[in-house]
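call fold(seq) -> tokens
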Amino acid sequence: MLETITVFKVYFKPKRDIVVPPFTSKLSRTIIIKALEKQGFNEVVSEIKAPWKTKPYVFTVVFQNNKPLFKTAKSPPKPLVLKANEEYFFKITTIGSQRSLRIVQAISNTPEISVYNSEVLLVGVEARTVDFGSLKVKPNYDYVKLEFITPTLLQLPKPKRIKEKIKLRHILFPLPMLITYSLAKHWNLHAPHQEKISNIEKLAIISNYILQEVNNKLKPVTAIYDEKRRPRGITGWTIYKINNINKKHTETILKLLNYANYIGIGRSRTIGFGTTKTTHIQPSANPISADDPRVPADM
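ret:
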């Protein structure tokens, strides 16, 4: 049986103005949990609330007109408010067909939900389902562009012998090895046995040579998650030239970057960090065009 990945895009409208948490994936998660509880799907709620490091669920922040809504350290000190009768959306990714079925049943059968002293109307849902085997990408492109839509927290792996003595550290540049390592670890936890990736440490090192940075527009951002936590990550984009020095490894890396479209990259992706978009591009016909990915970002 194929293991599936489903992305739901859930549209909603508040009935009146709602003050929401500074990192709005909390609202996304609350809406889905309440919908599941109303339908009696408590086993799914327990999974979502379980303290797993890598869950088979990913919740994005709330978007309006494709703009992600969250507060940063530079945001004005006023609360974040969703306006009455305006349309917003968020996405939830689930791994596993039974989980996906429960989510769609909960959303379809729950038109209205009370949340944060107001009500929201669920006004629509879109869904896309793929399986792990269908995410393969042939290396027929010269470049790949990664967009970091919400703060992406790329974590250095900790040495095992001194793991407890080292504080958590995020790297503020999208090194291919950190991206590949993060995606491959998540992939191996959820993919069917025949799709698992061997020797992810070796693959991570090789990715530094297969993905060559040629252009970027990056911005370090300190997100406000709650009263205490202020994780600092990166937003923006990076373009990599694909050096197909090894077909097998190149295809695996491109497959993982495709996987990132569904589950994101880096730490805390289940709560909305590291939402990313991968686009494959060819060079333009004019090598000096400002649209050419090989041109430096400041031209």
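The radius of gyration is 20 Å.
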